[in-house]
């Protein structure tokens, strides 16, 4: 089939100006639009011809090429034919008369249907005690989320009524003004870009279609959680849009500090007061650990600040693999009061140690 003359298709003269072209085109597009002629293949065929013809004549370069070379064009063909060419049609220019143009042609331009969009992630915080962080704990996390209104199902319209297609933008949400080759568009003011108008808004959501609800999730904080540990609950974030997947919920764990232990990863540091004789002579002292008290052997000659490692008595490791260690930090204490016997014993010790050199202070003493 030979391609039809685009001037014939639109019913305009060879000298028609832009305004005349556009007027003829709009009239035909309205008449032949598939929405107005359902199940009429002839109308659909003609509609495509009109699109193709306008595609050529509204583009100065294509029009000049057509005028010079005719229907066969300089290197290929004009006229209706390949389905792909319709993607070149300036959809922004059409959207005011062709409400469902985007859905009719599928992907095709600015009026294409909305893309699936993943919902946003949420973050929440829970504060737990140091002991709970070591042992693991179940907590309830309340999250305020936006969901489709349970009364109107998200339409925003009072139950029993339905939103109607916006007559200004024909449901596209966009108003376009064509100026030469460029189509300028702006959101439709009447429907605020929604494409639909709600005459009787739902009382529950005041027409928004969404409402805030509080959801509570049971969250398992694993044994050994640290301050700042994030727990991910897949799919518990904001709902996706247009069929997109939901976001995730991240629960950030805040751990209260302990009065006893200082945390170093999976290791715990515990200050252990020892007397001077215990440090000097060695001793066995009872110390607390998260798993219960243990006997700590203090070797003779231990200095204040010495760290003694008790294997496997620290915090559980988050990725499994047992526990960290407990690090006992010795603090040699000085008694405030002495009995007579203690004083005599210390004075005897002082006399015997006075003559010992203090090598590291040599040269700095006055
Ligand atoms: Zn509602
Ligand atoms: Zn509108």
Key phrases:
366 residues; alpha+beta; 15 strands; 22% helix; binds zinc ion
Helix-strand topology string: HHHHHHEHEEEEEEEEEEHEEEEH
Give the termini separation. Answer: 115 Å
Computed Rg: 41 Å
What summary fits the major beta sheet?
4 strands, mixed
Provide the list of bound ligands, each named once.
Answer: zinc ion
The pLDDT mean sits at 81
Strand arrangement in the largest pleated sheet = 10-11-15-14
Strand residue percentage: 25-35%
Query: What percent of residues adopt helix (DSSP H or I)?
Result: 10-25%
Overall 3D form: elongated
Number of H/I helices: 9
- Oligomeric nature of the chains: single chain
Uncertain segments? 73-112
Strand tally is: 15
The chain-level structural class is alpha+beta
């Amino acid at each position: 089939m030979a391609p039809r003359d685009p001037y014939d298709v639109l019913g305009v003269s060879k000298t028609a100006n832009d305004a005349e072209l556009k007027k003829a085109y709009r009239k035909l597009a309205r008449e032949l639009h598939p929405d107005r002629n359902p199940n009429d293949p002839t109308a659909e065929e003609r509609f495509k011809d009109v699109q193709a013809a306008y595609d050529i004549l509204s583009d100065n370069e294509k029009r000049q090429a057509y005028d010079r070379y005719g229907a066969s064009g300089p290197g290929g063909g004009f006229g209706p034919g390949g389905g792909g060419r319709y993607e070149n049609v300036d959809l922004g220019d059409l959207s005011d008369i062709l409400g469902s143009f985007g859905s009719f042609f599928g992907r095709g331009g600015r009026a294409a249907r909305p893309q699936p969009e993943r919902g946003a992630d949420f973050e929440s915080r829970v504060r737990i005690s140091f002991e709970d962080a070591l042992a693991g704990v179940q907590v309830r996390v309340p999250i305020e989320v936006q969901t489709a209104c349970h009364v109107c199902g998200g339409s925003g319209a009072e139950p029993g009524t339905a939103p109607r297609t916006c007559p200004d933008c024909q449901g596209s949400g966009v108003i376009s003004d064509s100026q030469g080759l460029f189509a300028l568009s702006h959101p439709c003011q009447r429907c605020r870009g929604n494409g639909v108008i709600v005459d009787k808004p739902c009382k529950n959501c005041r027409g928004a279609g969404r409402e805030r609800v509080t959801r509570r999730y049971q969250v398992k904080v694993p044994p050994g959680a640290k301050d700042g540990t994030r727990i991910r609950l897949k799919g518990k974030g904001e709902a996706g849009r247009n069929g997109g997947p939901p976001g995730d919920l991240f629960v950030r764990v805040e751990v209260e500090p302990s009065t006893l232990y200082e945390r170093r990863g999976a290791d715990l540091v515990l200050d252990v007061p020892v007397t001077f004789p215990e440090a000097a002579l060695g001793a066995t002292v009872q110390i607390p650990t998260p798993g219960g008290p243990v006997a700590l052997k203090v070797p003779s000659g231990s200095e204040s600040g010495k760290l003694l490692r008790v294997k496997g008595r620290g915090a559980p490791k988050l990725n499994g693999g047992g526990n960290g260690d407990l690090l006992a930090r010795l603090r040699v204490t000085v008694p405030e009061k002495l009995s007579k016997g203690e004083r005599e014993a210390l004075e005897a010790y002082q006399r015997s140690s006075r003559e010992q050199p203090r090598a590291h202070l040599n040269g700095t003493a006055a």
